[in-house]
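Let's sit down with a protein and look at its sequence and fold side by side. Which protein we use is up to you, so please pick one and set it down. Label the sequence line and the structure token line clearly, so we can match residues to local backbone shapes. Go ahead whenever you are ready, and we will take it from there:

***
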Amino acid sequence: MGFDGLFFARADYQDSDLRNSTKTMEMIWKGSANLGRQSWLFTGLLADFYDPPDSLCFDRSCGDQPIIDDPSLNDYNVPERVQTFIDAAHDQ
């Protein structure tokens, strides 16, 4: 197909809810029985449509805590932000 992977943001709510609850948001799409494995494509359904996980939005309008990666600053927060990211990944 020419792609390594493809992610979908929208799906039927029943399918999305089921996949989310069973942690099957990712799958192999078998594009053609005739072409075999060369047509297989890794696909996934985004958990929150177009939205980032809670507290990991870095858009100006979100207001989530930024990553402050300078250890000399009092607000240095890389370990906490990394843990937030890891927790969000595990929750999906």
User: Anything to note?
Assistant: Strands lie at 5-8, 26-30, 40-45.
